[in-house]
Amino acid sequence: MRVDLFDFDLPPEAIALRPARPRDAARMLHVAGGAPLADLGVRDLPSLLRAGDVLVFNDTRVIPAQLEGQRGEARIGATLHKRIDLRRWQAFVRNGKRLREGDTIAFGAQVTAMAEARHADGSWTLFFPGEEPVEVLLERAGRMPLPPYIAGKRPTDAQDRSDYQTMFADKDGAVAAPTAALHFTPELMAALAQAGIGHETLTLHVGAGTFLPVKADDTLDHQMHAEWGTIDAETAARLNAVRAAGGRIIAVGTTSLRLLESAADESRTINPFTGDTSIFITPGYTFKAIDGLMTNFHLPKSTLFMLVSALMGLETMQGAYAHAIANGYRFYSYGDSSLLLP
After folding, report:
1. Please, which residues have CB within 8 angstroms of residue 128's CB and are 6 or more apart in sequence?
2. Taking the domain 3-62+163-341, which CATH number applies?
3. What is the pTM of this model?
């Protein structure tokens, strides 16, 4: 499909620079197949789902994966986006043309990395020598990797260390938050449980590739970056049992959705899964694992706006986004939410 079909005018001021406080005070646009759009709030979620439904959250934890350093006189910026092994990460590098294989980059006084290999897409493999886990080094030298649409408007600060982490964050490895889950609080989870709505978790370590613009003119020519994820056998079995009992599987965030769809087969069975996924969902895709999606508002011509258009229909989502913009909804990572029920 032509990428320009997914373009729309988004005022810069619509991109939220801070989250709602408290988190579950955010607005939520209810988009249901055939029904009028409804302006609601995240706290209305228990009344919009049914007893027996299950929400699926991503329990990845964002690491401080943005580094600023020096290679001689050259300033080098690095955003780690995919773990290769215990001491190696693939990274997008700013000023990477100044690097040669074997160069050492000093990220402050205590953390160094070797530029080990350059990839075809311009990213680099960085090797972090030493005995301490790389995550410990990142806590010492790194910053939270806010999306460029926020970081370009204000500096990252101490508040982002907590703001850009969900209440489910447990397993280190993401360089972008599964932002739909940022809206959840213990109070909201208690209300959902009281309404008979369950929840499960999976892990997808979100990579910085999620922020890359689609530069191709046709979706067929866009290359998705791979991300590592896992769904264990017990979780897969419980989710299949939910659907067999007539409940719905509602993905919280596009990251949960993409991993669930990667794990599902043509019979709509969710299988255990561990490995990389680079699934790219565009209109025409047949969903096998999920019955709905809670997600924030995405940017024009992004792979994520293509995904929600695949779920609900492009015309429906164009109308929903026009409504959201006209009514002052806040977009992107720290923005408001939508509940999409086809």
Report:
1. 87, 88, 89, 111, 112, 113, 134, 137
2. 3.40.1780.10
3. 0.92
